Structure formats: structure tokens, C-alpha cells
Amino acid sequence: MKKNFERIFVFLKEVGVQVKKIDWPLRKQAFDYTLIVLGISLVTALILGFLDFLFFKILSRFFYF
Question: What is residue 65's three-state secondary structure?
Fold first, then answer.
């Protein structure tokens, strides 16, 4: 049981060492990337919503919904 706790402690210590090696983005970069992701998500949602509406209108001519 004690050996398991030692292994967990060593693992967490190694994680801490690796986290310090990460080259974190600047605040502005993170903000810019966030805006890009939100913009692409919005455009994708609009395109898919339009296609859904279009297919619904086309199919509703042939089937009752």
C-alpha cells in the first residue's frame, strides 16, 4: 500500500516538472485563439443550420412531417 502512494507521489512530482517546461501562450495569444475558435464555431453552426433548414424544406415537399 505504501509503495502505491510513493508511486503516485513520484508521478505527481514528474508532472510538476513537465508542466514547468510548457511554453504557455501569452494572454493576447490565448484571447486571439479563443476568438478564432468561437468565430469558426459560429460560421460552422450557421452553415449546418442553413443546410438543415434547406434539406427540411426539400424533404417536406415529398413527405409529411
Answer: coil
Could you state, in order of their start, the residue ranges of all structural domains in the chain?
25-65
Report how far residue 42's alpha carbon sits from residue 37's, in angstroms, rounded to the nearest whole number: 9
What is the mean pLDDT of the segment spanning 49-57? 97
12 contacts 20 by C-beta, under 8 angstroms: no
pLDDT digits (tens, 9 = 90+) for 37-46: 999 999 999 9
Q: Which helix (H) or strand (E) holds 59?
A: helix 27-60
d(CA 47, CA 64): 25
Task: Please tell me whether the overall predicted TM-score, pTM, comes out greater than 0.85 for this model.
Answer: no
Angle (CA) 57-62-65 rounded to 5° is 65
Strand, helix or coil for residue 26: coil
